[in-house]
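Example (one chain per record):
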Amino acid sequence: MNPNSNIRLISGTSNLALSRGIADYLQLPLYELDVIRFSNDNLKVRINESVRGDDVFLIQTSQPPVNDLIMETLQAIDALKHASAGRITVVLPYFPYVRSDKKDEPRISIAARLMADLLQTAGAHRILTMNLHSPQIQGFFSIPADQIFADKIAVEYFKKRDLSKTVVVSPDAGSAKRAASFAAKLNLPLAILDKRRINDDDDARIHHVIGEVQGKDALVFDDEISTAGSMIETEKALREMGASSIRAFAVHGVLAGPAVERLSQSSIDEVVTTNTISIGEEKKWDKLTILDVAPLFGEAVSHIHNGESLSSLFAG
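Predicted structure:
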């Protein structure tokens, strides 16, 4: 991409490595926000480059400290708006509060919808994200909201393996459609687990398995791994049903709380995720593989900037 064109890549403080990967892919300079925290815990966000009339892509993922980064993002959008940026596209590899997408109990917030409202009110013109927990979140926006998928790089990765005895496993009914699409791209059969969450916590229980997993190499497909409670229950169910081996692919490696301890001590043969969220060295273990999504976001940024269709490249 022409570095002299009116495009600007600006990175928030959340995942600089991914932002730099996107900039390197596009062969563009990357500008960083100047973020100042005052003694009263307030933030000041400053844009250090002129962006007047520019097509700006602000890159900021959702990861700890989540709420601080949300405020940083909103202030950055507002600063860009007041600096007369021509268009502001917010690149959110992992969308904040993505799992709070419905009112499934009394007197709670639909926080994902609130995030959509805040981003639009701050001045965002467009949103670019990856593998939403629920596709209806795109409908929360009245501005263009593009969702791209990590399936492509995952398919390329797993096609290098022996898949002759592999079955793709959806960990619950809600993930079945996406898992079925993933299985079709690999030309593999699909099994679905009946997972039910009884209490208001991160753990769930597996009640039934729909499909044949006995003697098979199970490849579990999910959008994220948070505390890994569900993944461990999935592992136990698949072992009880006679699976020969278990590998897992989750797009977003949240790896919160006891996740790393649970997964590293489990019998899961490999956990594959992406770098939508930065994973520190303290969270890595020998059976963890991290795939790079920077080229996918780089292509998406290029297509958006040039007014080209995304659907032909990234439809799930």
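Caption: The mean pLDDT is 93.
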